């Protein structure tokens, strides 16, 4: 009995089915492209550390952390692409209502405002404002907790980065 071309076109030589491209493949490729582009842009976007008498003023190379993050993102995206062949999931992006996209849009706008405010206001003040706005927007009803986390988290990160890691972060211009 002869099989039609359509019946055999979707089969490998060993008889198993070829997996079809799904949204996981596309997402993995998009993340791979983004991670590779960001990894290649690091030398052009991160300034070289200042030197005094031939010696670096910071203990860490400023490009180390972005390279680690974007390199790890690239490795995870490649792994995701390889695993996505076996994933059998429905595309749930079609079921997201407008409120979900609105939340993502507000978060992106807040992060862009944070990036613009960072050089002017410094890390601590910008971090406090970002954390507070996002906590209020997403409905945290415990106002004492909102204020405590909004103030303490950026301060802890700032002092941990500047004192323990000896990395300079943008400071408030008035002190």
What share of residues are in beta strands? Answer: under 5%
The major β-sheet equals: 2 strands, antiparallel
Could you give the count of β-strands?
Answer: 2
Q: What's the N-to-C terminus distance?
A: 85 Å
Q: Indicate the percent of residues in helices.
A: 55-70%
Count of helices?
Answer: 6
Rg over CA atoms, rounded to whole Å, is 23 Å
Based on secondary structure, the structural category is mainly alpha
What is the N-to-C succession of helices and strands?
HHEEHHHH
Identify the overall geometry. Answer: flat
Mean pLDDT: 82
- Taking pLDDT < 50 over at least 5 consecutive residues as the criterion, the unreliable ranges are 4-16
Q: Keywords for this structure?
A:
flat, mainly alpha, single chain, 6 helices, 175 residues
Report on this model:
The chain is an all-alpha fold and 175 residues long. It folds into two domains: 95 residues, no CATH class; 79 residues, no CATH class. Helices cover 62% and strands 2% of the residues. The protein contains six helices and two strands. The protein has a two-stranded antiparallel ribbon. Helix 2 runs antiparallel to helix 3, helix 4 packs antiparallel against helix 5 and helix 5 runs antiparallel to helix 6. About 7% of the residues have low confidence.
């Amino acid at each position: 009995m002869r099989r039609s071309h359509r019946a055999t076109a979707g089969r490998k030589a060993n008889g198993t089915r070829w997996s079809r491209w799904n949204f996981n493949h596309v997402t993995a490729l998009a993340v791979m492209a983004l991670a590779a582009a960001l990894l290649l842009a690091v030398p052009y976007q991160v300034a070289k550390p200042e030197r005094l008498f031939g010696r670096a003023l910071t203990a860490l190379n400023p490009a180390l952390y972005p390279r680690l993050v974007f390199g790890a993102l690239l490795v995870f995206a490649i792994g995701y692409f390889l695993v996505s062949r076996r994933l059998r999931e429905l595309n749930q992006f079609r079921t997201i209502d407008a409120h979900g996209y609105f939340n993502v849009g507000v978060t992106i706008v807040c992060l862009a405002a944070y990036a613009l405010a960072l050089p002017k206001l410094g890390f601590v003040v910008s971090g406090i404002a970002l954390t507070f706005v996002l906590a209020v927007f997403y409905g945290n009803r415990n106002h004492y907790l909102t204020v405590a986390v909004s103030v303490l988290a950026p301060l802890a990160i700032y002092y941990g980065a500047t004192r323990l890691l000896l990395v300079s972060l943008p400071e408030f211009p008035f002190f």
